[in-house]
Amino acid sequence: MKNKKVLIVDDNALNRRVFENVIGHNYFFDSASDGLEAIDLLKRNHYDIVLMDIQMPKLDGISCLKIIREEDIADIPVIAISAYSNQGDRDYFLSTGFDDFIAKPVKPKDLLETIHFHLQPGLGSSAVDGEDSGEHVDLNETVIRQLLKYHSIENIKAVYFDFLEEAKNLTEEIKILAELKKFDEIGEKLHILKGNSGTLGVLAIYRATAGFEKKIKQSNLENIKTDMAYLESGLKTYQQIIESDKIFSKYE
Q: Second label for 95, Cα 20 to 30 Å away, from 30, 84, 159, 180?
């Protein structure tokens, strides 16, 4: 399968790195940070499948797909990746022309099985194994064990430390935005935090951001200080977990 090439399209750098680490063992890949960059790469290179985020600046995933199809740029499977995850959302994305849909937070096993299904039709998913037994802790080690099938512990550690820095920066930005009462922008920051923490199994942050984001969308701002404190507590817990290195040392 290493002769196949995947185009990853996502505006979030950490998302791209996680996807690259997951699929790099089995496939070649390129990455694009928005729809315009993706179209340019598709015009200049051959790819076998595209992983397309939906919410992106400059050119969103749905508009990008429309251009790809209408201009006949590439006749390959394009997979939608989005935090919208109910059946209605899935049906909508498929109706716009996507070949499949993966919900965020993305599980490595789901990502590989979906790619494998579209690139190796009829062969099933035997090339991708492993159980997905979630652990109700602050950091779900199931995700780490899945990632270890496709990359080294050193690279995986780097991804988790990159996320720590991103989480610190986003949390600080959210604090400032809360003081300025820029609640729409808070929602955007929380959306990024929720997606990345979910993908990496950082439950300490995911639990805090999921409820916080829902309240922001509903304009429920009564307990924003409590929500902010919960987020900061989750960040502190996550920082303590990975800086102690115990979570990774058992796999080295």
A: 30
